[in-house]
Write the C-alpha cells for this entry.
Amino acid sequence: MVKKIILSVLIISFFSCKKDHKRIRILSFKQEERLLVEPYGLMPYSMFNLRIKGYVNDTIYLRTEGVYNLEFKLHGKIDTLWNSDYYGEGPIECIFLPYKATEGQLDIEMKL
C-alpha cells in the first residue's frame, strides 16, 4: 500500500512540472517575455510546436534560441503555427519583444 502511494505521488509530481510545455498570455507590451521548454531525460520526442495567436496594434518581434533559431515579425491579427521535427536535442527558449506594439492580446504556446 505504501509503495502505491509513493508511486502515485512521484507520478503526479513528474507530470505537474511540465517543463516541456509552456504557455503565456501577454496583455502588457512594456517589456520582453521569455519562455523556456526543456526535454525530460528519458522521454521520446518527435515534434516541436510554437503557436502564436491573438492581435496587436503594431509589429512585434519573436525569436527562439537553442536547437532552432527562428525569427518572426508579426502584426495585426495573428494565428501562426510553426512545427518541426524534434528529438530531445536540448532546451528551446522563446523571446518576445514588443518592438512597436503598445497594446493587444497574445497567447504564445511552446510544446515538445
About this structure: The mean pLDDT is 88.
